[in-house]
Write a structure and sequence with these properties.
CATH class of the largest domain: Alpha Beta
CATH superfamily of the largest domain: Type I PLP-dependent aspartate aminotransferase-like (Major domain)
Number of strands: 12
Shape: globular
Helix content: 25-40%
Order of helices and strands: HHEHEHEHEHEHEEHHHEHEHEEEH
Number of helices: 13
CATH topology of the largest domain: Aspartate Aminotransferase, domain 2
Distance between the termini: 54 Å
Largest sheet: 7 strands, mixed
Number of domains: 2
Radius of gyration: 21 Å
Length: 389
């Protein structure tokens, strides 16, 4: 990390200001107001071992350092590390575990996370189990003598389950373990897990942080120097780092995170109202609904309820598969969190790897990533598709 940056101080500047300025001083040579893309692999040394903070771009790069400082500030974390993808960030955290260790994850975790844990780390001797993390007692019951950490998402992907971070962190800490929170859906604009007791926060910056469907990346934040040192060793030693252009694009996206999230939340709330009133829809999953099981927890730890909406269709899988291909403004595609609205069938797409497991999702489920288009266009698009089923 670089010298202390006044714009990184959450007590001195608001979120939107820090999103634009933290870690990104004006260029001292040219006065450029945007962070340069330092497309260099190596850096000149004044003498052997004497340099200006950078030696080799796998180890550290000025553009990457700016991104790490900015995102750490937004998560109100002391430390931050950037990775080449969300899964690379997840992998770096899981490398804290050793053969024979055990971890617990939520019973509706992201399919890619489950695939990495079950197929890669499971085969390497890491034990795991899934639990209903909406119930702290279920976590206590699932905890084993060799459990080292609990991995949770909130809201979850794709069922939008909300987990009480403070309650789960308390159980983990009482047991001597770590609490890891995937904050991708909420973003640090809506939720800051470290405030609620989490030890580690991770993101797929490919999603809302990048925000434009043009960059892949991951990020990990923590207040623990020990955890950060380990992450830094893995970051350099394993080398799954983002390139300077990736970091630049992510920084560009973060500058508009707050205004994009506000617009996405506005659109999502309007869409939820439409879906609730349509006879083809059997269930709407959105934390902002008063009857959502996790609404109280969401209201406690989130400032708004997000731009992700999931819903189930009364006609089952066949109708859901048809609906996924009938929209025009909503694009049928994987991923989420960008300016354009997307629709997908999780069971056949992003969560196919969870089929037949405790994490399998309903086959009548569709997931919407609500973008920032004109609200009426989104409503008309969904209404037309639903009416045609």
């Amino acid at each position: 990390m670089a010298d202390v940056d006044p714009f990184a101080n959450p007590e001195g500047y608001g979120f939107e200001t820090r999103a634009i300025r933290a870690g990104q001083p004006h260029d001292p040579q040219t006065g450029a107001v945007t962070m340069p893309i330092h497309q260099a692999t190596t850096f000149a040394q004044e003498a052997v071992g004497e340099h200006k903070g950078f030696e080799y771009s796998r180890t550290g790069n000025p553009t990457r350092s700016a991104l790490e400082q900015c995102l750490a500030s937004l998560e109100e974390a002391r430390y931050g590390r950037s990775f080449a993808s969300g899964m690379a960030a997840t992998d770096a955290i899981l490398r804290h575990l050793r053969p024979g260790d055990h971890l617990i994850l939520g019973d509706d975790a992201y399919g890619g996370t489950f695939r990495l844990i079950s197929r890669v780390y499971g085969e390497a001797g890491i034990e795991y189990s899934a639990a209903d993390l909406t119930d702290p007692a279920a976590l206590e019951a699932a905890w084993q003598p060799n459990t080292k950490l609990v991995w949770l998402e909130t809201p979850t992907n794709p069922l939008l389950t909300v987990i009480d971070i403070a309650a789960i962190a308390e159980v983990a800490h009482n047991k001597g373990g770590l609490c890891v929170v995937d904050n991708t859906f909420a973003t640090p604009y809506l939720q800051q897990p470290l405030r609620h007791g989490a030890d580690i926060v991770t993101h797929s910056v490919t999603k809302y942080l990048g925000g434009h469907s043009d960059v892949v990346g991951g990020f990990v934040a923590t207040n623990s120097e020990e955890v950060d040192d380990r992450l830094g060793f893995i970051q350099n030693g394993a080398g799954a780092v983002p390139g300077p252009m990736d970091c630049f694009l992510t920084l560009r996206g973060i500058k508009t995170l707050a205004v994009r999230m506000d617009r996405a939340c506005d659109n999502a709330e309007a869409i939820v109202e439409l879906l609730q009133g349509h006879p083809a829809v059997s269930r709407v999953r959105y934390p902002g609904l008063a009857d959502h099981p996790g609404h109280a927890a969401a209201a406690k730890q989130m400032t708004r309820f997000g731009g992700m909406v999931s819903f189930e269709l009364a006609g089952g899988r066949d109708v859901a598969m048809k609906m996924a291909t009938e929209t025009t403004v909503f694009t049928l595609a994987e991923s989420l969190g960008a300016v354009e609205s997307l629709i997908e069938h999780p069971g056949a797409m992003t969560h196919l790897s969870a089929a037949g497991s405790p994490l399998e999702v309903p086959d009548s489920l569709l997931r919407l990533s609500v973008g920032i288009e004109t609200t009426e266009d989104l409503l008309n698009d969904l209404s037309t598709a639903l009416d045609g089923l």
